[in-house]
């Protein structure tokens, strides 16, 4: 099961309730997870979760802006100080690597494990066990990308009707066949697992986008998208006041794309600091929700820091109980 943990949901600057951009994606393999963006303070946010820097497999940075990458050098350093020895792979624009190397060189930062940078534009497909990652160009003031995480699950369905028709009684034999193990019965009859097991594969796709004022660019993703995580910095009214682009998206703009491409689960994040929890002090975060709901009738969520979601095997995104 895939799981999303939001570590920062503010844009530009942190607020008292929201840190800047970062989201963790837990993979199906035990204790395996990746980080998408790493704004300032991300490593402190991680301390409030059950995530460990020892089991972090890779970091994906959508673009060079500070609210998405200023936390990277500190996180890399802390992982080393906490005893990490496994290599760490960072998929990011070249500018992020140059930033990190400048900080490392000028602060005499020693890292006791290998840090490997992969330039986003040069990455074709990045493999993480059963998950394949592809990058998709977006529209922003600097080069920005969205990442599609496509996880393939293989299921072995035991054909119980056929087993019963052939007079094979329930028991350990059934279990071995379902595991793909050929069996010889006590009377010498051989049973091939392939004759009694139907193998099916299904792929689930989670797309996590960086800053982007043209959500339709994500139509480059091959296959159906099960979950879209996209910035919704403004409402349409505020976006029009923000000045010439390319800049950010509005809730309406993202939700319209999700509706047109029949994406069943949409999570909005990266909200302007001007949005408050209540409308009595100015612009309300509820304005974002209302605007998105006006054009999208799928499962809609506005992420808060530490919100956790699980994607079930049937494609439903479920919000989990908060565990800190």
Q: What does this 3D model show about the protein?
A:
This protein is an alpha/beta fold. The chain has two domains: 2-156 and 198-319, Ribonuclease Z/Hydroxyacylglutathione hydrolase-like (Metallo-beta-lactamase, Chain A); 160-195, no CATH class. Helices cover 22% and strands 29% of the residues. It contains nine helices and 17 strands. An eight-stranded mixed β-sheet has the order 6-5-4-3-2-1-16-17. The chain has a seven-stranded mixed β-sheet with strand order 7-8-9-12-13-14-15. Helix 4 links the parallel strand 5 and strand 6. Helix 8 packs parallel to helix 9.
* Number of beta strands: 17
CATH architecture of the largest domain: 4-Layer Sandwich
**Major sheet strand order:** 6-5-4-3-2-1-16-17
Q: What is the overall shape?
A: globular
* The CATH class of the largest domain: Alpha Beta
Let me know the average pLDDT: 94
**Contiguous uncertain segments of 5+ residues:** none
What is the third-level CATH name, the topology of the largest domain?
Answer: Metallo-beta-lactamase, Chain A
Output the helix-strand order: EEEHEHHEHEEEEHHEEEEHHEHEEE
Largest sheet: 8 strands, mixed
